[in-house]
Amino acid sequence: MPAHQVGSGGTLTECREPVSADEQYHIARDQRNPLYLGQWLHQHPDDPALKVRIKFWSIEFQVTFLSQGFIPRLKDHLLSRLRGQGGAGEEAIFSEKERDALFFQHERIYAHAILRINFTTYDMRRDQDFINPRTGKRFIMVNSNEDSPEARKFHPFWYAQVLGIFHANVFLSVGSSTAKPIRMEFLWVRWFGHDSMWKSGWQARHLDRIGFVPQEDTEAFGFLDPGAVIRAAHLIPVFAYGRTIELCAPSVAREDEGDWEYYYVNR
Fold first, then answer.
1. pLDDT grade for 16, boundaries at 50, 70 and 90
2. Helix (H) and strand (E) counts for the chain?
3. Bridge partners, residue 263, by sequence
4. Cα-Cα-Cα-Cα dihedral of 103, 105, 109, 112, to 10°?
5. What distance in Å separates the CA atoms of residue 91 and residue 89, rounded to the nearest whole number?
6. Calpha distance 219→152 (Å, rounded)
7. Partner of 80 for a Cys bridge, out of 18, 91, 194, 220, CB 3.0 to 4.6 A?
8. What would the pLDDT profile of 123-166 be if each residue is shown by its tens digit?
9. Cα–Cα nearest to 208, from 197, 198, 219, 221
10. Which pTM does this prediction carry?
11. Cα 24 from chain centroid?
12. Do residues 29 and 17 make contact, with C-beta atoms less than 8 angstroms apart?
């Protein structure tokens, strides 16, 4: 399935709603595109974008296997935000008991066609980007959460491809059966990594070069608070290197002919 399709083959529809310039971002309030989590995951049992690579060590050996990790990772993301950790890469890993306290209303999430992002241009004017995973406008940038100040200095931003725009109505069990659901909006993304062997920047007179994080990395896919998005990113495929199927097996996150090996980050 191409990267822009997240449902069972239907076409996403979107309500036209007025968007305030004071909003950081806007996702439609409608619920006309539900995704039934159990059914959707059952349709993609071997998709690497929906799995998490888990390693177990013992004295004698190491075991690595893939498990269906979409829902546990999503719950970790939502629980982290509910506890005030909304930044990219800041999600905590919760226990099964803590995850079991978070419920999705009707066991579904809701897909959206468009994310609108308001931002300030270089000349202090207002502008708006449209992110639509079904089209070429699906790359975004966020502030880097690199561990070291030196890394943040040279690479102040992270980049990702938006695979889906969603919201969920969730309950957090606190011993009350009358709690109202909380609407939480989130992006499902595939992360890029910087090419550490490529010299870039003003002194090198080269654009930054990035590539998709290989599927073997546990952080290749994840979730993001839409409020963390700065704006859309303009990424240019490095055509000289062509495409590859080594970074990701056939997946909802990959074009049928494979991924571009590298991208330039246009300034």
1. low
2. 4, 18
3. 210, 237
4. -130
5. 6
6. 18
7. 91
8. 999 999 999 998 878 999 999 987 667 666 678 899 999 999 99
9. 198
10. 0.86
11. 18
12. yes
